[in-house]
Design brief:
The protein has two helices and two strands. The protein has two domains: about 35 residues, no CATH class; about 100 residues. Strand 1 and strand 2 form a beta hairpin. It is mostly helical and about 140 residues long.
Amino acid sequence: MSGSNSPRGGSPQPNIKSEPIKVEEANERKYTLPQTENPKFEQFLDLMLVEANFKPQQAKVEIVKFVKAMETNYTDTIRLLKEKAEILARKLRVLRSDRVNEQTEKTDLEKLFVSCIEEARREVMRRRFRTEVANRKT
């Protein structure tokens, strides 16, 4: 979806614009990033930089702090999602092993059932044979 607000009222989705932004850091590395609309960042700029009339160096420090806070938030979210994925993977392994165990138990029960049927069949055959032998003697 490319709207500025999500349909469920959650965090807004960024709109990617076609022209890139070039970012230069203090150590002169240059990055080209897609320009996005980020309401939180716009609010930050309005409140912290425009209204507070920061000098360029102060503004740079505030922006770095904000970006580090956002990065920490993203890395924490990624870490939590990875942990949840690991937990779900463990649960899936347990469920799969339980399923295999159930199938094995059914097989054991089936074997027991078949052996009981065979034993009952042999017993019936013995009784018939005894009855026939007894009938022949009389």
